[in-house]
Amino acid sequence: MVLDWRLLGYDQEGANDPYQATASKTQQSRQNQEMNARAVAYIRDTLLAQLNLFFASISGIVARIDEDDPHTINVFYPAAFEAGYIRPAVRLEIGPLASWVPSSSHSIKAYAAEAFPDAFSNPVFEVIAIDAERTFWEKATILHQEAHRPDAIPARYSRHYYDLYKLSESPIKSAALSDLTLLRSVVKFKERFYYSSWARYDLAVPGSFR
Fold first, then answer.
1. Which of 1, 51, 131, 182 could form a disulfide linkage to 63, CB 3.0–4.6 angstroms apart?
2. DSSP states of 41-59 as a string?
3. Which InterPro entries match (predicted)?
């Protein structure tokens, strides 16, 4: 989930705009640290309280900050099974260092609402989501980066391969491949906020993409 920078006190114009160029990579690193610190405080002090206020009337539902990641909220619910493999929680990974452009509004209906329509007073709701074409290029550049990683690939990266595979089986692939301007935007963002000396984002173009 992308946290709106404006909730952290940043503007989208002027000197307080995180998109404004920084003088050095060191200064950019400091800016990233400050943004992450503001996000942690907002998630802990504001968002968590809002969620638990919303869940107060629902028996057995509680939200807690993840013990290992202060950018993550786990929403726990009553378990239907005792098996330990499936954790009875929805994991909300929230961060400020991401772009929400382009994005669109979508109408969503839960599978549970289709199975139990009488249990929902408002079965359809609107969500704003990053366009799948950007997700395609986000995943592709992650794998391009990993292809150049000089050491072992970190754990839990197989999901990116699977995600890109599934996106490639849909019309999203053709739409993304025809929008190289979006690819350049993704690369520019990563070079700015996720700089890596070995990622070779300069090669993340048709003909040398890995």
1. 51
2. HHIIIIIHHHHHHHHTTST
3. AbiEii (IPR014942)
Going by the DSSP 8-state scheme, the letter that residue 10 receives in this structure is -
Pairs from 139-144 (Cβ < 8 Å, separation ≥ 24): 139/163, 139/164, 139/167, 140/164, 140/183, 140/204, 140/209, 141/183, 141/186, 141/187, 141/190, 141/201, 141/204, 143/210, 144/199, 144/200, 144/201, 144/203, 144/204, 144/209, 144/210
Question: Angle CA(136)–CA(140)–CA(145) in degrees, nearest 5?
Answer: 150
Apex CA 109: angle with CA 48 and CA 168, to 5°?
Answer: 95
Alpha-helical regions (H) of 66-127: 111-115
pLDDT digits 0-9 by tens, 80-101: 877 667 789 999 999 999 998 9
Taking the C-alpha atoms of residue 205 and residue 210, their distance in angstroms, rounded to an integer, is 9
- φ, ψ of residue 9 to 5 degrees: the values are 95, 10
